[in-house]
Amino acid sequence: MFIPVESAYVEALKFDDTLYQRAIENNVLVTTPTTLLTSLNIVRQLWRFEDQSKHSAELANRAERFYNKLRVFLESMQDVGKRLDGARMSYDQALGQLTGGKGNLIKQASEFRELGVSVKKELPEELVEKAQLELAPPSSDLSRPHDGLQATAQAKTSWEQ
How far is CA 73 from CA 77, 79, 80, in A? Predict the structure, then answer.
């Protein structure tokens, strides 16, 4: 409440010294020409703080939702990675059953063809070669006379290929 004549306000306070306190209790701010600009600046700051508080609360809520979505997404990505690893292990195991060992399925199928079984379409050559490489003993160049270390390295290299 603005009181334009400050001396009138002073006289009212002399008459009732609880006037200011009762005004505050009823959410009334008493101002005079001397205190008007200061009071308006205080009100402006309070509104700004309230506005910032609302924005801060909204920002905190958004950050929490974002964090939770990111956490769930990352957990899903980890699960996808584990499942891809599991699929790769299953694939390698199945491929090993096809191409690995003396009784592998590719070799057995090739033997059927050698026995005269007619086939409409050939097996993938890459897998047939892999199965034959699995069965082939490592080549050894140790029969030729030269440095033993070099021969060992050559044998190891040909085995790794």
Answer: 6, 10, 10
